[in-house]
Amino acid sequence: MSGPFDVSNEVILITGASQGLGRQFARVLSAHGAAVALAARQVAKLKSLEDDIRAGGGRAVAVQMDAVDGGFLLT
String of b and e for 36-71 (b: at least 16 CB within 10 Å)? Predict the structure, then answer.
């Protein structure tokens, strides 16, 4: 995809990526070529999504984060 919505060369941080809309956005953006940083509190769910995206040839990294606390909890 080219044009104003081309994300193939972008790195995108997705908060709430462990479930729901955040998880779906991560899958869609990755399918369109974006590298995705997956952020949420539930690291097991993030790792599962990271593995799924990578298995499909995508680029992803899981980062435990609580946006309410305003900080990253790197694991």
Answer: bbbbbeebebbbebbeebeeeebebebbbbeeeeee
- Torsions phi, psi of 44, nearest 5? -65, -40
26: which 2 tokens? 């991560």
Task: Give the HSE-up count for residue 62: Cα atoms under 13 Å, Cβ half-sphere.
Answer: 20
Q: Would you give the DSSP letter of residue 3?
A: S
pLDDT tens for each residue of 4-50: 789 998 999 999 999 999 999 999 999 999 999 999 999 999 999 99
